[in-house]
Amino acid sequence: MGTPDGSGPDAAEEDPRKRPRRRGDALNAAIFEAVLAELKETGYARLTMERVAERARTGKASLYRRWPNRARLVMEAVYHVVPRYMDAPDTGSLRGDLLELFRGVALLLEGPTGEAMRGVLGEVLHDPEVAEQIRSASRGESLAQIRRVADRAVARGEVRAEALTPRRLEAGHAVMRHHFLFQGTPITDRVIEEVVDEVVLPLFTAPPPG
């Protein structure tokens, strides 16, 4: 218990100057986890830099030094969790790999990442400056993940490398996002199988364009 003048251990725990100093990756990880927790509890509309800083036990200035606005911060937090869901294992077949990949995408969209996508999309549509910032910060994670799956299929001889155009590689994720935005969650395994069997596999195994 603290003393009446606030000099006890409880007061020390609440004094920001006495908090453990974190820098670099450790601080960023704490901030990203705070963002995801806020998205889950309150949603994107009510998420503020102040609430994230408080939850991460850091100063608001630390956030603004790294990210100019909440949209950029939220996108960085999303990139922080993407590898947990979208690094599809090698199942030995293209279809198996695609099913695992898009199951991970479905899980990602059902959580705070889905809430982030809806919120950031709303800001992008109404603020050209934010839209440009988001485009410039994009890492192409979705394309990179499915390209790894496709490269394994090429190595197995299941598809031809020249058939894997950027538009064909993007199609599956585009359909998943469209379903999420207009149909919501959960995204069932039946939907995932339809995306793989009716969209992605036919495109990947079709003759190369031209």
Task: Provide an overview of this structure.
By secondary structure, the protein is mainly α. The chain contains 11 helices and no strands. The protein has helices at residues 9-14, 24-42, 49-56, 60-66, 70-86, 94-110, 112-126, 128-137, 141-156, 166-183, 189-205. Helix 7 crosses helix 8 (128-137) and helix 10 (166-183) packs antiparallel against helix 11. The longest helix has 19 residues, at 24-42. It is elongated.
List the helices and strands and how they pair.
Layout: H1 9-14, H2 24-42, H3 49-56, H4 60-66, H5 70-86, H6 94-110, H7 112-126, H8 128-137, H9 141-156, H10 166-183, H11 189-205
Overall mean pLDDT score? 87
Determine the structural class based on helices, strands and strand pairing: mainly alpha
Strand content: under 5%
Largest sheet: none
Radius of gyration: 21 Å
Order of helices and strands: HHHHHHHHHHH
Q: State the low-pLDDT regions, or none.
A: 1-18
Inertia-based shape: elongated
The end-to-end span amounts to: 76 Å
Q: How many strands? A: 0
Q: Roughly what percent helix?
A: over 70%
What is the number of helices?
11
